Amino acid sequence: MPVKPSEKEEEYFAKMQFEKKKKIEEEKHKKLAATEKSRLRELHFMRCPKCGMELIEIDYKGIRIDKCSDCEGIWLDSGELDRVSKIEKSGLDKLFSVFK
Ligand SMILES: [Zn+2]
Q1: Ligand 1 mean position, distance from CA 80 (Å)
Q2: pLDDT value at position 40?
């Protein structure tokens, strides 16, 4: 007659099974998050964060400025506000005249 495994062994194997399945689910979640992230990026890339219409990008003195083609909001990439703030007034007037 086969020897019945002790309860401790059953718990151990159940735990192993759980850990294995949990890992598989965690991998699925990671993939899902990455897929969702790239889907959102595709959906929102060069779109106005307020109205969702296309952004028009101009390059002014090495600063990339995006202006919405609909609501006319102006958007800056990371670090660009700092650079824009260092442009003297006459330079800023020239910059904004680009959009008029
Ligand atoms: Zn807009």
Answers
A1: 19
A2: 94
* Residues 6+ away with beta carbon under 8 Å from 51: 68, 70, 71, 73
Q: Is 83 exposed, middle or buried (0-12, 13-18, 19+ CB in 10 A)?
A: middle
Mean pLDDT per 10-residue run, the chain (100 residues)? 73 95 96 95 95 93 91 92 88 82
Distance 36 CA to ligand 1 centre (A): 23
Distance CA 54, CA 48 (A): 6
How far, in Å, from the CA of 65 to the mean position of ligand 1? 14
Distance 86 CA to ligand 1 centre (A): 26
* Ligand 1 centroid – CA 32 distance (Å): 29
